[in-house]
Amino acid sequence: MLDSIRSVAQGWVGKALLAAITVPFALFGIDSYLNQAGNHVAVAEVNGSNISVQEYGNALQNVRNRLQSEGKMDQAQLDSPEFKSLVLNQLINKRLLANEIQHAKYAISDAQLSTYITSMPEFQKDGKFSQELYDQTLEQNHISASKFEVGMRADMMTQQAQDGIAKLGFISNTRADHTFQLTNQQREVTVAELKTKDFMKDVKIDSTEVKSYYEKHKDKLLVPEQVKIEFLLLSASSLIPTIKVEDDEIKKYYDENAAKFQGNEQRRASHILIGFGVNATPEQKQQAKTKAQEVLAILKKNPKRFEELAVKDSQDPGSASKGGDLGSFGRGAMVKPFEEEVFKMKVNQISDIVESEFGYHIIKLTEANGDSSDFNSLKPKIKAELLYQKAQAAFTDKAEAFSNMVYEQSGSLDPAAKAFSGQVQKSDWLNRKEGTKFFKNDKIMDLVFSAESLKEHRNTEAVEVSPNNLVSARVVDYKPSAPRSFDEVKGGIEALLKLEAASKLALAKGEATLKDMRAGKDVKDIEWITPVTVDRKNAQGLTDLAMNQVFKTNTVKLPAYSGVADAKQGYLLVKVIKVDSAVSNDAEAKKTAQAELNAALAAEYLSSYKQSLREKAKVKVNEKLLLSGN
Q: Which of 56, 143, 176, 605 is deepest in the core (most CB within 10 A)?
């Protein structure tokens, strides 16, 4: 059908497509979009149609790769359950949209498809569509033209459906102008805080109130259940002292990973070049060398003449006029003899004569920046890396045996400690929260506080509490949860009751003051801050609570007053002195604001549309499978 326009997509093309088409290539990649083979175990089911583990896995990896390349998320976020659910929801929405498109009989004609593909900038050469580029790209990615076009057509229909919904998100010029004015309105305001802590001195709490509160809430004033445990750690880092790395291993690693160790080493140098031309005779080379030796002799007597002699004698037209300055460069930028010399020189040093294919160089190093990437300077770092690699490998080898032993000999951690040269450590009393904080892991404490562990006092399974760190624990002693004694908590209860009472005083004072001010009475015991002029983008130091209240205040009559309780912190009074609605008539600013409003409204319509599809559909998610891998 489209033999005249074939051409598309390497891995980067899949990402590039979303710049023009919203769903789904750039998010999931062309390969995963087209690849329906392989493992079809369902991670979700949408109206009887499965989303396979393979499709989900490919989508997940493509999104991770894209976000990591853009530096937008760290690995912990990319591995989180929330992130995995987000990617699956994107796939579910795509499937729902595809079903809706089929039901509504959306269509993209051959002419529309042809026009779109031939106009894509990725496939243009010298401003025109390139048949050769199209064919070459398809071949490189092992994608047939028909498969690519099927995917493109589906994608364009999806976008067609979304565009139709998004166009419903329209705001009139009048509404946009009104919103623009409100957004840019300025208010001169002042605020005052009636702080709860200032009322604490006026509060008296009777001992009977404290006792009564204790009796009513005794079932909630508990000491959490506690355990004493012993635990054993198998760690990659603990294996490092047992690992050896020989010098020949370090050198081999350096040689095999030369590109990795280029680093950020930079040099800035000037040179004087005495050239001898292409296919120079021995006599011509000797003449050039003699000239270079004469220049070098002058420089040895007076190094300060380097720039002068570069302008006068250097035969490098690009640098001679600049006193020989070549600018800054890293390794690999210069011919090898020149690079080898310049990267071992010291700043302000002038070299002996260096021969290259271009002639004889006299080099002056003017700056040196960054970390060295030569073998000797990198040797300690490489050794450390190899030690840890070997330790990780040893940890992997030992992990299964460690897990098996703590399970098979579950009555004690001592056999595993002896077998793996570890030390059984003991804890003091700790509750679940304290244990989770110590191990930075929920699972190990769930196992410790399980009924089996508390009753049988057996080793827990080995848990990887963090990368390359396995822990097994065993309960030694246990204290069940119990009510705290009155003496333990009476101080805290009294403080709580005082805070609540002081908060009520602050609230009552605030509401009474607000009523007086609105009635036009003179209130003298309120400390207002110096008035400031704010708008919705410039808070001038006011808190979010204050800013929210400032723009909620009814300003029909000025000065205008309002107030709001600040949890138990006190009561906030707001006074609006002046309102300035004279907004800039900048047409471009208004146009931009209206476009942003339309975009936000369109996004909201589209989100609601997708949610409505989800609510009408039968969607089942295999949560266990979703969170178990990838």
A: 56
Please name the residues in contact with 620: beta carbons below 8 A apart, sequence gap of 6 or more: 44, 45
Closest CA to 354 of 291, 292, 265, 308: 292
d(CA 495, CA 295): 88
Q: Express as a percent the part of the chain with pLDDT over 70.
A: 83
pLDDT for 506 = 93
Which 8-state DSSP code applies to residue 21? -
Closest to 33 in 3D by CA, of 160, 147, 178: 147
For the domain covering 3-168+620-628, report its CATH number. 1.10.4030
Rounded CA-CA distance 233/627 in Å is 26
Rg of the chain's alpha carbons, rounded to an integer?
A: 37
b/e burial code for range 545-555 (CB count within 10 A of at least 16 → b): bbbebbbebeb
Answer whether the bond into residue 559 is a cis peptide, omega within 30°. yes
Per-residue pLDDT of 564-587, as tens digits, reads 998 778 999 999 999 887 665 666
CB 371 within 8 A of CB 383: no
Q: Do domains 226-236+386-483 and 264-370 have the same CATH topology?
A: yes
Residue 276: φ, ψ to 5° = -125, 5
Cα–Cα distance measured from residue 289 to residue 359, given in angstroms and rounded to the nearest whole number:
8
Which pTM was predicted? 0.42
Non-local CB neighbours of 519 within 8 Å, separated by 6+ positions: none
End-to-end CA distance of the chain: 39
| Residue 618: C-alpha distances to residues 165, 458, 615 (Å) | 22, 44, 8
Which CATH fold topology does 226-236+386-483 show? Answer: Chitinase A; domain 3 (3.10.50)
Amino acid, single-letter form, for residue 86 = L
Residue 614 structure tokens: 């989800």
Q: In sequence order, what DSSP letters do the residues of 398-438 get, joined into one string?
A: HHHHHHHHHHHTTT-SHHHHHHTT---EE--SEEHHHHHHH
